[in-house]
Predict the structure.
Amino acid sequence: MSGTSLDGVDAVIVDKTATQLLAQVYLPYPTSLKKQLQALTQGGKANLKDLADIDAQVAHFFADAVDALLESTDNFLAADIKVIGSHGQTVFHQGGKYSMQIGHGAIIAERSGIAVVSDFRMNDIAALGQGAPLTPMYHQHLLQGKEGVVINLGGIANLTQVSKDSVIGFDTGPANTLLDNWIKKTKQLDYDRDGIWARSGFIDERLLSDLLADEYFKKPVPKSTGPEYFNLNWLASYLLGDERAIDVQRTLVELTAMSISQQIAQGADVYLCGGGVHNLFLAERLSYLNPNSEVSTTNDLGMPVDYVEAAAFAFFAQQTLEGKTSSLPSVTGAKGPRILGGVYAAQ
């Protein structure tokens, strides 16, 4: 699994229930590959030759992650693994129309000798759904009958609210993508460690009000988004040019915290996951803005925060092989649940 933060690849081995983590590894993208992916996702332009080349590069990197995962444990061989669920790297997503994840499953299957399920989103989109978020079904599975809210703080934040009668899920807006890209632009750092830089700034109330008034936050569910919408060009359209860089970072933290908190039911148990959990200031703001909720992490559900999404696509791959659906029409808006992904058999 590699998310919209473009940091690298999380690879896990889970048990048959997909609720117990048996092994895990994280491989950061090489600088050259990360720059290519950033240019592709932020710029939105690529010729076919470059796209084909980066697709193959990502697939081989995912296969490297499989190798590294198996090498990290003495307990498992390739023959012990039933299936690989490979989300791939999203380079374009327009909910309801098209979604592209590169890192071709055929290459991973050939390299690993393990069956691969990939390209999960298009089945839902073909059924008139958003194609995202998909993880709410897994969040429901992870809660094991409990009610609660699971919030994934990736490049984009998504929220799942599970009650006795329903599951609601959608992308709330930006999380790490704007924070990381702004500090990269202004301080040449990959991310704001622990949110320390943002903590030292002040909220620009004019900017925050304008950002929260963006049309995406007003859209009804189902809805999904990505860095092709929430990017530095989007941010620049709201800047006057006289803002302090540190205050913009502080305001972006508040934008993420508020756009999420406005969607949380009062008093709900909240479980955070994703890379944004490590931004301690962001986590603090989420707790502060939800005083009636117990805010913890998915560690309390038995799944470490950094590996929830990787485990989710392992779960989906198993569902696919068993002919079971993995999409929730109540979340994506599709005309019905669908079996997700295409299967690339091991040779």
